[in-house]
Design goal:
Blueprint: H1 6-9, H2 19-30, H3 33-36, H4 48-95, E1 100-107, E2 113-119, H5 128-131, E3 137-139, H6 140-149, E4 156-160, H7 181-193, E5 197-200
Parallel strand pairs: 1-4, 4-5
Antiparallel strand pairs: 1-2, 2-3
Helix pairs in contact: 6-7
């Protein structure tokens, strides 16, 4: 080649520095930094399939934990509800008013009729002391009706003309008797309107 020194024709410059090496160095300097820093296409990290499997296991494990906690919470709430209902039922039974009552009547010297209405859950068993206790004394039919109005629906009144506890019978208990039929009927009708039954348990009395 004309005009080319023998050194260039042999691929070297003076000082025996390779021309190819110099060109490679200059080319590298001209390349963008981003290209030089590019990572390899094949990553050395865990494969996508392995990552998916690990993620699936974590999701399943979390789901099982949540389900177990929900079941435990449901069992606890059910136990609390059962205990509360049992306690509530027990309290209701304690607060439930008695259904049976004993009614006694007698006539005062003034001609007025007096009454005594006492709770008797286990049937007629009231003593004479209780019957004539002033604390339970009802003066006249009006006060008797007021007391009957406070009784629970479905209650039963046993109207007696004698003390069943004969071991404690006194002269006062011999005063017991039924008022005239019109007063009896008045009381029975008043009680019946309130769904309260009146049973006459005296001698020669219709139930």
């Amino acid at each position: 080649m004309v005009g080319v020194s023998p050194g260039l024709r042999s691929g070297t410059e003076s000082g025996r520095v390779s021309v190819v090496a110099l060109e490679a160095t200059r080319t590298a300097e001209l390349l963008p930094t981003e290209l030089l820093a590019t990572e390899p296409l094949c990553s050395q990290s865990t494969s996508p399939h392995a990552q998916t499997a690990d993620s699936g296991d974590r999701v399943l494990g979390t789901g099982r934990t949540v389900l177990i906690r929900q079941i435990a919470l449901l069992v606890a709430l059910t136990s609390i509800a059962i205990a509360f209902c049992s306690a509530q039922g027990h309290n209701d039974s304690l607060r439930k008013p008695p259904k049976g009552y004993e009614l006694y009547s007698w006539q005062e010297s003034s001609g007025r009729w007096s009454f005594s209405l006492l709770a008797s859950p286990s049937g007629p068993n009231i003593s004479a002391e209780q019957v004539f206790n002033k604390k339970f004394l009802l003066n006249g039919v009006k006060e008797l009706k007021q007391t009957i109005s406070g009784l629970p629906v479905g209650a039963t009144i046993f109207w007696l003309d004698r003390i069943t506890d004969t071991s404690h019978e006194t002269k006062a208990s011999q005063r017991l008797s039924y008022p005239p039929a019109n007063i009896i009927e008045q009381v029975r009708q008043y009680a019946d309107k309130r769904h309260i039954e009146v049973q006459m348990l005296g001698k020669n009395q219709e139930p």
